[in-house]
Write a structure and sequence with these properties.
mainly alpha, 3 helices, TAO_STE20_kinase, serine/threonine-protein kinase
Length: 278
C-alpha cells in the first residue's frame, strides 16, 4: 500500500515538473520570437531612415553644388580682373617704349595674347567646376554607400548578439531543468529508501513480536506441563498411566459409538422386515 502510494505520488511529481518546464519553455520561445521580431522591425526602420537621409542629401546637393560653383566663378572673375589690370599696365608700358608706327601691331598682338590667356583661364575654371561636381557626386555616392554598409554591419552584429544571448538563456534554462529533475529524482529516491527502511523496520518488529509470542506460548505450555506433571504425581499417578488412560477412554468412546451404530442398523432392518408382507 505504501509502495503504491509512493509510486502514485512519484508519477504526479514527475508529471507536474514536466508540465511546468514545458510551460516555461513555451514562454521563453514566445519571448525570443518577440525579441527577434522587434529587432527585425528596428532594422527595417533604421534602413528606411537612412534611405530618407540619403534622399534628402541628394535633394539638397544641387543647392550646395550651386553655392560652390558660384564661389569658383567669383574666383574666376577676380582672376579676370587681375589679368585685365596686368594687361593694361603692360600695354601702357609697351606703348611708352614702342615707336608710334608699330604700336597698333604690338597692341593687336598683346590683345590676342590677353584673349588667349583669358580663354585658357576660363577653360581651366570650367574644368574645375566640372571636376568639382563629379567629385561631389562620387563622394556623395561613396559616403552613402559607406553609411549603408556601416548600418548593415551594425544591425547584423546586433542581431548576432541577440541570438547569442538567447542561446545562452536557453542553455541556462535547460541546465536549470536538468538540476530540477535531478533534485526531484534524489528526493524520490530518498523517500523510497526511507520507505523501504521503514518497511524493513516494521517487518523486523513484526517478526520479533511473533517470535516473542511463540516464546511466551512455549514457555507457558512448558510451565503448564510441569504443573500438570507435579499435580498428577501428587495424586499418585504417573504421566504414562494418564496417557494410557486417555487412550483407553478414546477406545471406549469409539466402541460405544460403533455399538450404537450397529444397534441402529439392526433396528432399521427389523423394522423393514416387520413391514414386509408374507
Amino acid at each position: 500500500m505504501l509502495v503504491r502510494h509512493h509510486e502514485s505520488t512519484q508519477d504526479l511529481e514527475y508529471k507536474h515538473l514536466a508540465a511546468l518546464q514545458k510551460m516555461k519553455d513555451e514562454q521563453l520561445k514566445k519571448q525570443h520570437e518577440t525579441e527577434r521580431d522587434n529587432q527585425t522591425d528596428y532594422n527595417l526602420c533604421a534602413e528606411a531612415d537612412l534611405r530618407k537621409k540619403h534622399a534628402l542629401e541628394v535633394k539638397h546637393q544641387p543647392r550646395s553644388l550651386k553655392a560652390k560653383e558660384i564661389q569658383i566663378r567669383k574666383q574666376f572673375n577676380e582672376a579676370v580682373k587681375t589679368q585685365q589690370r596686368q594687361y593694361k599696365a603692360l600695354k601702357d608700358h609697351i606703348l611708352q617704349n614702342t615707336p608710334k608706327n608699330e604700336q597698333k601691331t604690338v597692341v593687336k598682338k598683346l590683345k590676342e595674347e590677353q584673349l588667349r590667356k583669358l580663354a585658357a583661364l576660363g577653360d581651366q575654371y570650367e574644368a574645375s567646376i566640372a571636376e568639382m561636381l563629379q567629385q561631389q557626386n562620387v563622394r556623395l555616392d561613396e559616403t552613402q554607400m559607406a553609411d549603408a554598409n556601416e548600418l548593415r554591419n551594425r544591425l547584423q552584429q546586433e542581431l548576432e548578439l541577440l541570438i547569442a544571448y538567447q542561446s545562452k538563456i536557453k542553455m541556462h534554462t535547460e541546465a536549470q531543468h536538468q538540476r530540477e529533475r535531478k533534485v526531484l529524482e534524489e528526493r524520490v529516491s530518498l523517500r523510497r529508501a526511507l520507505l523501504e527502511q521503514k518497511m524493513e523496520e516494521e517487518r523486523v518488529t513484526f517478526d520479533k513480536e511473533e517470535q516473542d509470542k511463540r516464546s511466551q506460548l512455549q514457555e507457558r505450555q512448558s510451565k503448564e506441563l510441569k504443573t500438570f506433571d507435579i499435580e498428577t504425581t501428587a495424586m499418585g499417578l504417573k504421566a504414562v498411566e494418564v496417557v494410557q488412560a486417555s487412550l483407553e477412554q478414546v477406545d471406549d468412546d469409539i466402541s460405544i459409538r460403533g455399538s450404537m451404530l450397529s444397534l441402529s442398523g439392526s433396528s432399521s432392518s427389523n423394522s423393514f422386515t416387520s413391514h414386509t408382507p408374507l
